[in-house]
Model the fold of this input.
Amino acid sequence: MSNKVSRRQFMSYTLMGTGGFMASAMLMPMIRFAIDPVLQSSDGGDFIPTPQKVDELTETPVRVDFTIKDRKDAWYKSDVANTAWVYKDGDTVIALSPVCKHLGCTVNWSGDESHPNEYFCPCHGGRYKKNGENVPGTPPTGPLDEYEVKVEGGLVYLGKTIPNTLV
Amino acid sequence: MNWTTKDMDTYLQQKEYIDTLIVPLLKVETKPELLKNSSSSSEFLMYLTTFLETQFKGRMMLMPPFIYTQSTNLSTFSETLTVDLADMPFKHIFFITTDAQWLSVEIKGQVIWLPSIPLESMDEKLRQTIIEDQLRQVLPRFTEVWST
Ligand code: FES
Done:
C-alpha cells in the first residue's frame, strides 16, 4: 500500500543504469500500460462512499464493505471488494483495515471463540485489540492500519489507509 | 499470495508460514454452444480464488490457473502436474475447479469441486454474498488440514 512507486520514482528507476536509455524507450510503453491504474488510484486520495449509516454504528466494530471500481488485478480488470471494521468511539468514527500486519490475511472481529473482543487472524492466530493494537506473543508486529474517515449525509466515507494513530 | 514478483519475494522469505498451494484448474470449452457457459465458469473460478486469496493471503499461494480444453487427457495432465508441483515445498496442495471430471482423476493433493454459479447477472452485493457462501462451505477443508 505504502510502497507504491510514484511516477517520478518509476521514471528514475527505468532511466538509471547502463543501457537504461535504450531499454526505457522500449519498455516504457509496456510497463506504463501495466502500472498506470495503480498510479491513478494513488493520485486521487478520494473518499469512497459506503452504505454504512453513522447513526447505526455502536462501540462494537461492524464489517463495512465498499467497492473500488476498475482495479487491474487478478486475471482480469475487475472491481475490487474492500472491507473495513468500523465502530464509534464517543463521537468519532474509527475504521480499521482488516489486513493482518503479519502476512496480510483478513482479520475478523470476534473471529476466535476464546478471544471474543478482539480481531483474530485465521492464518497464524494473530490477534489485535479493538483499536487495532497487536497482542504481544502473536505473530503480527504492528497495529492494524486505519482508514481516513469522512462523514457526509449521514454516511461513512472511507479514504486511504494510514498508519494506526490510536495505539 | 499471488503469483507476482512482489508476493513471491515475501513467499521466499516466509516459506514456513505460507504452506498451502492453491491451484485453479480451468476447463475452457471451445464448442460454440458452450462458450457462454465456459466463460461464466471461468469468471466464477476467478472471483472465488481471488476472494480466497485475499482472505488467506498470508497462508496461501495462489497459482495462475491451469487451463485445458475439453479433449485434454486429464490423467496425463494430472501426472505432469503432480510431478512438477512437488518441486515446491508446500505442505498442502488444493486444486480448485468447477469441472466435476477432476473428482475421478487421481492427483496428489485435495480436489475442491464447486458447481459454477452464473454470477454475470448479479449485482455486486449479491455476487459477493454468493462467493462468500461458497467459500464458507469449503473452509472446513482448509482448517482441517491446518489444524493437524
Ligand atoms: S497473516 Fe495474520 S497471523 Fe499470519
